[in-house]
């Protein structure tokens, strides 16, 4: 069912578009060979949840995004690791991703240590060690430069702006950002938004960046800065896609068992970009569908510790969960 609600907005109308019936191609999860490039961090994470503590496990924004996208499309990684990076983790990355853009530098791998509260809704950062990431100057390998789809994770916005210019002909690009860059390099964040087609951002960070409390106002301000699409991630409550005067809300999948929210947002973004790349289309209808895949892949991520939730699933699991999503959102 398609519902349009007109909200008066000056001389314009703001259309809220509710869920459409899913088309057949939404079920077709075919990994194609067109390349998506993902630039971001590969890390060793220490994650403290109420039920388990994980020490120096494979993580990082680009890792989650890349592995999520790899279910749909050949994905090239641009990241840096230190000499201490465990071989078993390198093997995992190599089994899922093209690693021609993975640099190995003298020194230690980027490390993150964070603790969740009892509700898993709040995470406190205990320690961040940039290590080899601090002075990393990414280079796009020649074989990546023809990538028409590029995802820039929550890196230094100046690095993201410089990197996107190295590609020959980008059809669709998307970036993320985090509180640290908003607080320390806001002007660079805004400049970055002008260089990409879409911005994906958490709800609280959207409010911090725009100094608005209403998410519609947040999105409108971000679009005014130059990007075409804004996707606001709302955690367990799903996401909101904005384009011109269109709003597309997609619900989060209700889950009874959630153990570790780490990487859910990155998995969301990776699935979005992976789906778009596999379809080779960037029209609004396809972008809407990509947010559904984002929510579904994020739901797998939170049901395992670290990367477990993504690494243990198969394409059939995604198909089944998409079918479940359709069933519970149809009315």
Automatic annotation (TrEMBL):
<dbReference type="InterPro" id="IPR002173">
    <property type="entry name" value="Carboh/pur_kinase_PfkB_CS"/>
</dbReference>
<dbReference type="GO" id="GO:0016301">
    <property type="term" value="F:kinase activity"/>
</dbReference>
<keyword id="KW-0418">Kinase</keyword>
<dbReference type="Pfam" id="PF00294">
    <property type="entry name" value="PfkB"/>
</dbReference>
<dbReference type="InterPro" id="IPR029056">
    <property type="entry name" value="Ribokinase-like"/>
</dbReference>
<feature type="domain" description="Carbohydrate kinase PfkB">
    <location>
        <begin position="45"/>
        <end position="307"/>
    </location>
</feature>
<protein>
    <recommendedName>
        <fullName>Carbohydrate kinase PfkB domain-containing protein</fullName>
    </recommendedName>
</protein>
<keyword id="KW-0808">Transferase</keyword>
<dbReference type="GO" id="GO:0005829">
    <property type="term" value="C:cytosol"/>
</dbReference>
<dbReference type="InterPro" id="IPR011611">
    <property type="entry name" value="PfkB_dom"/>
</dbReference>
């Amino acid at each position: 069912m398609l519902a349009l609600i007109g909200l008066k907005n000056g001389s314009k109308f703001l259309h809220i578009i509710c869920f459409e019936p899913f088309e057949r191609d939404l079920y077709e999860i075919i990994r194609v060979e067109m390349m998506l490039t993902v630039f971001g961090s590969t890390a060793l994470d220490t994650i403290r949840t109420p039920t388990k503590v994980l020490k120096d496990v494979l993580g990082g924004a680009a890792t989650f995004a890349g592995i999520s996208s790899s279910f749909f499309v050949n994905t090239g990684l641009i990241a840096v690791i230190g000499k201490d990076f465990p071989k078993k983790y390198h093997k995992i990355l190599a089994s899922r991703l093209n690693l021609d853009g993975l640099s190995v530098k003298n020194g230690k791998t980027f490390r993150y240590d964070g603790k969740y509260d009892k509700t898993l809704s709040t995470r406190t950062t205990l320690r961040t060690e940039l290590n080899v990431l601090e002075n990393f100057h990414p280079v796009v390998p020649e074989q990546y430069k023809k990538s028409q789809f590029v995802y820039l994770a929550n890196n230094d916005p100046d690095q993201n702006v410089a990197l996107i210019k190295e590609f020959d002909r980008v059809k669709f690009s998307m970036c993320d950002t985090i509180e640290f860059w908003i607080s320390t390099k806001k002007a660079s964040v805004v400049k970055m938004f002008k260089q990409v087609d879409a911005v994906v951002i958490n709800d609280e960070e959207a409010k911090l960046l725009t100094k608005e409390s209403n998410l519609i106002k947040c999105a409108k301000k971000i679009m005014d800065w130059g990007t075409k699409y804004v996707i606001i991630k709302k955690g367990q409550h799903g996401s909101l896609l904005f384009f011109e005067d269109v709003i597309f809300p997609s619900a989060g999948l209700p889950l009874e068992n959630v153990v570790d929210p780490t990487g859910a947002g990155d998995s969301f973004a990776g699935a979005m970009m992976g789906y778009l790349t596999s379809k080779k289309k960037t029209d609004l209808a396809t972008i809407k569908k990509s947010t559904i895949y984002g929510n579904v892949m994020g739901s797998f991520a939170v049901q395992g510790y670290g990367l477990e939730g993504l690494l243990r699933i198969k394409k059939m699991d995604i198909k089944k969960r998409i079918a479940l999503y359709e069933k519970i959102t149809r009315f």
